[in-house]
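# step 3/5: fold
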Amino acid sequence: MEPLLDLTNHAAAQNDRWLFIGSLIVLGCFAVYTMRYFVRQHERLIADHQRAREDYQASLRRIVTEQNEANARLMVCLDNNSRVLEECRDELKLCREERRGG
């Protein structure tokens, strides 16, 4: 970049036309530097977004797995409760029949 600035200084010493060309070169260098900077920022942003997305998907998978396990435990509990309620119903029938009969 320094040889370019030397060339620009030399051109600026010539006349206005060369000064204009030199300023265009400097402006072009600034534009290239700025574009590279924003491209790097954009690439970092994409990488951060990808990382956050993967973390989010992993946490969703974990939540779904935990919910499936909880649902399985609830199903076992419901089955046990249904069985116990049926036994209670049968016992109540027997008690009612004994009262009526006895």
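# step 4/5: annotate
The mean pLDDT is 91.
# step 5/5: archive (pending)
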